[in-house]
Automatic annotation (TrEMBL):
Listed transmembrane segments: none
Name of the molecule in the record: 2-oxoadipate dioxygenase/decarboxylase
This enzyme's EC code(s): 1.13.11.93
EC category: oxidoreductase
Keyword Oxidoreductase: yes
Keywords: Dioxygenase, Iron, Oxidoreductase
Organism: Streptomyces sulfonofaciens
Length: 461
């Protein structure tokens, strides 16, 4: 029998092997990431593993996939459900001014601490929004919906195996093998001819709309390794002549503990794709839709901590609007130093980031009574705090990642009124609850505090 987490780990490994064959630059990225991680481990020792064991980090990937309809989204959710991955978080990529991509997204990932430690594979999953009139007029919407209704992304045999794995939590060896083959194949780049005129019609709205709705199958858009020092990775990739986007997205690095998520990417080369012309002729064309991305993960922020990050983004934008020649990274570093404390201890004491807490082995043993406030329990050495890793994504960075891949801004008609989509709508479309990331981190922190309080014989701080 193969358990869900082993299926998940095997799926991530096989998808990685397949994507490496499809996009050779990805293999370079994985190699350079591994080198950087080994160097960081050597330089920093145990400290390097504070946000995950080197085993976890080396195997860690996130994928990105894009689907066209709620029915397709429900099916992909069954495939990921088989792997113990649940929809977490809602991201609306239609609003980001710079990108205006007609999708809303969630991320499928393990939610339980132990499952995450075994293998944290996650997939950023985007759903096209044909009903948004700012992007699609009624005629194009109708054509698009008809096209999407006529395709099959996941064969029934795959979905039946997925349901069984989800219900039973495991699969017998043979069924597991079959499931993995079919699941990986479902995300392979298709060699079927693409209707060039239809593809280009959608491309005028958005390259992402064409990538989703212009073809009869789906594919991995990118697969992202995790690196322990993203600034160093950026330098090494650039030194190898790979042209990265001009920035690392997310909070500035350097000072204090790493928080949330920092990402950067590069455009992959054009890939050969078969095109069908209006006269029926088939010829070799090329499309450039996939890319490479890498990320560094930090500590999960509470809502209060996250507000400070959003304040940073707004502050940097404002400063750049007044002074377009200012250096964005240094503006961000300066503002960030004012907004965020520079130690884990302060992040914990001020309730800005999530930690698991346990009684310190070296706590006072002289019969003294522990203090009641969390900050005091930490300061006086009663409790120890271990950071909780941020397992999710950032909408602004995601918009930047989408954007890095587009040569053309696409088209959004702001005279039309947006269709409302939110987390509740997405839960309905999925027929599964979209989980709230803060609730998950809160619960993990709370459980640890309750256990620690019980051991110390005090009220939960
Ligand atoms: C997803 C872009 C977002 C990330 O890491 O923020 C993303 C896509 O291009 O489909 O993957
Ligand atoms: Ni990504």
């Amino acid at each position: 029998m193969i358990s869900q987490w082993r299926l998940r780990a095997a799926f991530a490994r096989r998808l990685s092997a397949m994507y490496g064959r499809e996009v050779p630059a990805y293999t370079t990225l994985v190699d350079v990431s591994r080198e950087v991680n080994e160097d960081v481990l050597r330089d920093r020792g145990a400290d390097a593993e504070r946000l995950g064991s080197i085993g976890r980090v080396t195997a860690e990937r996130h994928g990105a996939v894009r689907v066209g309809t709620p029915a397709e989204l429900q099916q992909v959710a069954r495939v990921f459900g088989a792997l113990g991955m649940h929809p977490v978080g809602f991201y609306d990529l239609r609003e980001a001014a710079a990108s205006a991509v007609p999708v809303v997204s969630t991320a499928f990932r393990p939610v339980d601490g132990e499952e995450l430690a075994r293998n944290p594979f996650r997939v950023f999953t985007s759903l096209l929004t044909p009903a948004d009139p700012r992007f699609f007029d009624p005629e194009l919407r109708a054509r698009l919906e008809t096209f999407l209704a006529g395709r099959e992304l996941f064969p029934p045999e795959l979905l039946a195996l997925a349901d069984r794995a989800e219900a039973e939590g495991e699969l017998p060896d043979d069924a597991a093998e079959r499931f993995l083959q079919l699941a990986v194949a479902a995300f392979e780049l298709s060699t079927q001819p693409i209707d060039r005129v239809w593809y280009e019609t959608l491309e005028k709205v958005s390259a992402v709309a064409a990538d989703i709705g212009g073809v009869r199958s789906t594919h991995v858009n990118h697969l992202t390794p995790r690196v322990l020092d993203i600034d160093e990775l950026y330098r090494r990739m650039t030194a190898r002549g790979i042209e990265m986007i001009d920035a690392i997205q997310g909070p500035p690095g350097g000072r204090g503990p790493a928080v949330l998520l920092r990402q950067t990417s590069f455009r992959a080369l054009a890939e050969p794709r078969t095109m069908r012309e209006p006269d029926g002729q088939v010829r070799e064309g090329a499309l450039r839709v996939r890319f490479g991305e890498v990320e560094a993960r930090g500590i999960a922020l509470t809502r209060a901590g996250r507000e400070r990050y959003d304040t940073l983004l707004a502050g940097v934008d404002e400063r750049l609007a007044h002074d377009p020649d200012a250096d964005r990274p240094s503006v961000a570093r300066t503002l960030w130093a004012d907004l965020m404390p520079g130690t884990e201890h302060e992040l914990a004491a001020q309730g800005l980031a999530y930690f698991t807490y346990r009684p310190a082995p070296e706590r006072p043993r002289d019969g003294a009574h522990p203090p009641t406030a969390l900050a005091d329990l930490l300061a006086t050495g009663w409790l120890r705090a271990e950071p909780i890793v941020y397992e999710d994504f950032l909408p602004r960075s995601a918009a930047g990642i989408f954007q890095s891949n587009l040569t053309d801004r696409g088209r959004r008609d702001d005279d039309q009124t947006a269709t409302a989509y939110d987390s509740t709508w997405l839960s309905g479309a999925l027929d599964r609850d979209v989980l709230d990331p803060y609730t998950l981190y809160d619960a993990q922190q709370r459980r640890s505090l309750e256990a620690a309080a019980e051991e110390l014989g005090i009220a939960v701080p």
